[in-house]
Amino acid sequence: MPKIGIAEDDQKISGLIKAGLEEHGYEVNAFTNGRIGYQAFSTQEFDLLILDVMLPELSGIEICRQLRANDVKIPILMLTALGTVDDKVEGFNSGADDYLLKPFHFRELLVRIEALLRRTTSGTKEETVVLSYEDLSLNTLSKEVQRAGTPILLTAKELALLEVFLRHPNRLLSRQFIAEQAWDVNFDTGTNVVDVYVNFLRNKVEKGFSKKLIHTKINLGYILKS
């Protein structure tokens, strides 16, 4: 039975989520205070966390950032009313795996939770696989990235993005395909989140190297090629 932790200061929303998830067989612990939630999340075993951004004492962003700094790798879903591109980028940069805006349908929340847990479970069953192109490589189990033997540190979102490119070299990838394959989310044509993360990834895997690998096709998408 997967165990889910919730940090949400709106007791009505928290109660509805908790009741709904328990009806679907999940074990749920809910907290309304950010600092108390963080203490529980960092000392107990959870399979997935749902964090509201605006929390008393310690924000969801800060909870996520501190957990990732302590090498806690469980899936984290941000649940918030803050929906600008900058808000989403801040959440992803803190280490979140997904982002759901309020108000939301419980069915969508459930599907996102199932997708995150499925991705985590399938990852534990895979043998170590090294994906590479030219001098760039990714170990999909250890999440270690190297370019010409130089280690490169990437966030969870950047790792997922790089894996999509490495699994589809020399192929033009649309923004919609990238968003769905990397993050299990529907691409919102009104945002530039994919472009932002491609730029983040480029800055890390191409800076200091003469050969560029990720190329832009205007109005079409991106392609990994030499």
Describe, in plain words, how this protein is organized in 3D:
It contains 8 helices and 11 strands. It is α/β, with parallel strands linked by helices and 226 residues long. The strands form 3 sheets. A 5-stranded parallel beta sheet has the order 2-1-3-4-5, with helices on both faces. Strands 6-7-8-9 form a 4-stranded antiparallel beta sheet, with helices on one face. A hairpin with a 3-residue loop joins strand 10 (214-217) and strand 11. Helix 6 packs across helix 7 and helix 6 packs across helix 8 (193-205).
Task: Walk me through the topology.
Blueprint: E1 3-7, H1 11-23, E2 27-31, H2 34-43, E3 48-52, H3 60-69, E4 76-80, H4 85-93, E5 98-101, H5 106-125, E6 130-133, E7 136-139, E8 145-147, E9 150-152, H6 156-167, H7 175-183, H8 193-205, E10 214-217, E11 221-224
Parallel strand pairs: 1-2, 1-3, 3-4, 4-5
Antiparallel strand pairs: 6-7, 7-8, 8-9, 10-11
Summarize the structure.
The chain is an alpha/beta fold. It has helices at 11-23, 34-43, 60-69, 85-93, 106-125, 156-167, 175-183, 193-205; strands at residues 3-7, 27-31, 48-52, 76-80, 98-101, 130-133, 136-139, 145-147, 150-152, 214-217, 221-224. The termini are far apart.
Strand order of the largest sheet: 2-1-3-4-5
**Residue share in helices?**
40-55%
Average residue pLDDT:
88
Major sheet attributes: 5 strands, parallel
N-to-C SSE string, H for helix and E for strand: EHEHEHEHEHEEEEHHHEE
- What is the distance, rounded to the nearest whole angstrom, between the alpha carbons of the first and last residues? 46 Å
Basic shape: elongated
Tell me the total number of β-strands.
11
Unreliably modeled segments:
124-128
Radius of gyration (CA) equals: 18 Å
Strand content: 15-25%
Total count of helical runs of at least 4 residues:
8
What structural category characterises the helix and strand content? Answer: alpha/beta
